[in-house]
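FIELD: query
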Amino acid sequence: MSKNYTDSKSSLITPEQYSYVESATNGSHQLNEQDNNKGIQPFLPNETASPLSVADAIAQMLATLGVSYAFGVAGGAMASLWNALSNSTIDVLNFRHEAGAAFAATEAYFASDRPTVVFTTAGPGITNALTGLFAARGEGAKVILLSACTSAPQRGRWAIQETSTYTLPSGGIFTTGALFNYAITIESAAQLPQIFRKLALALAQPGGFVAHLSIPTSVQTSLVEDMCLPQLDVPRFGITAPKEAIAKSVELLSSGPFAIWVGFGARDAADEIRQLAEKTGAAVMCSPRGKGIFPEDHPQFVGVTGLGGHASVLTYMEQQLPLHTLVLGTRLGEPTSFWSSAMVPTGGFVHVDIDPEVPGVAYPQVKTFGVRSDIKAYVQELLQQLPDAPPSSTPLLLPCPERKGVESGIDYPVRPEALMAGIQKIIVEGSDAVVMAECGNSFTWSTHLLQFAQANRYRVSTGVGAMGHAVTGVLGAAQARKGKAVAIVGDGAMLMNNEISTAVKYKIPAIWIVLNDARYNMCHQGMKVLGLKGADATMPPTNFAMIARGMGAEAIVVVRESDIEEALEQAIASNVPFLIDVVIDPDRPAPSGGRNKSLAAQGVKSNQAKSSPKPVSFPLV
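FIELD: result
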């Protein structure tokens, strides 16, 4: 697609500036012939071009900052902005719901390591997107929301979908805070250079960044005259630990046996973590989001912790309790640790994170040496300074996750264990597809039974845990990686929010595997275990294959275990969106051995009286 850019008086950035900002915000990404072939081009002078509008300037600014994809739902209040995005180098995908667009943008970021955009119109467009943006913040994605708002002269006059302080709370939605790292309403083109500077600096920082640019309808069409964006000498930031912190870490970890607890924040340091484990002989466990960063088939891997985790982790902590645990890139929140005292090593934690507020929060009563650092740089330093483990004629045997075979002779209904075995064989081992699991029992079955040997192939959300995240996020992952992405989801999530129609429109190779049991089964099973009666978590049976075919996707129903592998092979071979509707046995209890053992151990260690009430909730039943 050819583009006309403005002359030196009204252009936003020079070719040299463009190249620099791209390299600053995207690491190795450089301006070259290959990028030009993709449609990523510098802003070249054009003597005949007319002045840019604010909407056009924002679209060009975002492309300069490395944005390749924008996901959203259009509307009248943001018509000019929508038009500008659609005529820029950014690929614009029009979704059916703003929440789905935000989830897709989140997963597109993780699949591409490039910032993404969500666009919405005024009023409900913004509020519909908030759950997905809340998830983006919790997951650590880099996402920018572009929204329309009511122009100043019309505020307070009951404009259509009025978006102002008269109708929406400004705090938190239009201001920097818990939801947005940065938020601003653009009332003038003169604000653009400072906004560009803030965005470029923030996107060059490690970790997540979620921003909100709200643009009144009238401002979108106003002109940008005689202005250039600032030239920014912004290298990609890194955070390295002080020498004193490294020295203290070496002292602590050399004082006795230690374990390594790996989280999602360590995903870029997979090779270094493996080297560290093999150098020191340390046992390795991971959070649900950290699956695959350390190979799950490695003899030093003792299991996944937390929700859907493995009882082998507790066995290790009971039988071979380490002196210290080196925590790398996990907040140790409830889904990862259940805050169980059984996970506390005798000497405390060495906790490394780019966020200095993370270490010590989950276990405030436990001695914790906190280190603020990029995980990769930190582990590289440890590899240089930590001594090798002493040779032993009798290597320490570590417990590993139990891998039970699926009992044969049963064909109907489909057991979730049999389905996971098929997914392991055809999807995980037989393809390079990214696999995502929805919250609920889909999460626990997938996390517990699937096994990954590579980083960045498994995605779950443990922060917000919103239903519909994987159902719609799978589009962003598939689109950004230009390849297959698979979502393992429940029927409740599929009914709540899906983007099959969007996938069909853009020919996105997404695959949905629906665990169809006509229940919100985590709720159903949880209430049953708690002994609470009367609450109804059932729903009418749904033929999801029929729905998917009605939207233009390919689909198949699986009711027998003998048909699982053939259906999965068809989905992987297909070039279009594909849904597998699996009618599963609703009475198979989701994996809970690890969390139940953890809770039991926690109760014993805290000396709770027998009469103490137990938590009445699920999934922590």
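FIELD: remark
The mean pLDDT is 86.
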